[in-house]
Amino acid sequence: MYKFEIHLHTNNCSACALSSSKEMIDAAVKKGYSGIVITNHFYHGNTCVDRNATWQNFVGTYIEDYEDAKEYGEEKNITVFFGLEEGFAPGKEMLIYGVEPECFLNHPEFIMMSAREKSDFVHECGGICICAHPFRNRRYIPDPHTPPDPDLFDGIEGFNLANKAEENEKAFIFGLNNKKIIVSGSDTHQKENFGNAGIAFYEPVTDYKVFIDKIKKSDFELIYPNEI
Ligand SMILES: [Zn+2]
Ligand SMILES: [Zn+2]
């Protein structure tokens, strides 16, 4: 199997992340993964990039982090794709896959968009939206039990390493009931957490369009921590 971690933060862009993209790639090698998608917190999230910077510089920091990771990944034989995690309501976040970074660069109005508009934008750019950890119950989330609007999302994160078992169970059932793609992600913010979640393909995937296509078809298996 060809394993990918698809929910991962790096300390160049996410304020809560402890590891660099290089450390994450080294962890991927160690744990026998084939690739990663970097999904750093974006404008409406826990970013450490200056929101007052020009849009060019703001998005540029994400692109630079991704490009450095991609280059290092090539050396280490780890495929690296560009994703984002963006807030769409207080305490609620969407994982975005399959949108070229230039799409964000060319559309600064993205940050003004409603959840519906963000979802439409991602789809127009050829990407997909996955609802990150729905039903997560934390103090910073005002309405943890309110289900997400299923129409906004292609998929649901049915397993998130940072969530409690009952939160994940609720998310998984919600995904099944709404006939959504279900994925697993570790939401790793540090190299030590790498390798406990993600998705595994049956064949090598090095092209982002192929990756998106396989996710759309649920042509993968879910990775869970060993102790579950
Ligand atoms: Zn975070
Ligand atoms: Zn995250």
Number of helices: 6
- Average pLDDT for all residues: 96
Largest sheet: 9 strands, mixed
Query: Which CATH architecture would you pick?
Result: Alpha-Beta Barrel
Radius of gyration, in Å, reads 16 Å
Per CATH, the superfamily is: Metal-dependent hydrolases
Low-confidence stretches: none
Compounds present? zinc ion
Might you state the CATH topology name?
Answer: TIM Barrel
Find the structural class using helix and strand composition. alpha/beta
Gross geometry: globular
Q: What is the count of structural domains?
A: 1
Number of strands: 9
Question: What is the CA-CA span between the terminal residues?
Answer: 19 Å
Strand residues, percent: 15-25%
- What is the N-to-C succession of helices and strands? EHEHEEHHEEHEEHE
Name of the CATH first level = Alpha Beta
How does this structure look, described?
This protein has 6 helices and 9 strands, in the order βαβαββααββαββαβ. With 228 residues, the chain is an alpha/beta fold. Helix content is 30%, strand content 22%. It has helices at 21-30, 55-76, 101-105, 115-124, 165-177, 208-216, and strands at residues 2-5, 35-41, 79-89, 92-97, 128-131, 155-160, 181-185, 198-201, 221-223. Strands 7-6-5-4-3-2-1-8-9 form a 9-stranded mixed beta sheet. The chain is globular and about 45 Å long. The model has no long low-confidence stretch (mean pLDDT 96). The two termini are 19 Å apart. The protein has a single domain (10-18, 20-135, 149-165, 175-207, 216-223), classed as Alpha-Beta Barrel (TIM Barrel), CATH 3.20.20. Helix 1 packs parallel to helix 2 (55-76). The structure holds zinc ion (2 copies). One zinc ion (ZN) binds at residues 7, 9, 85, 132, 187.
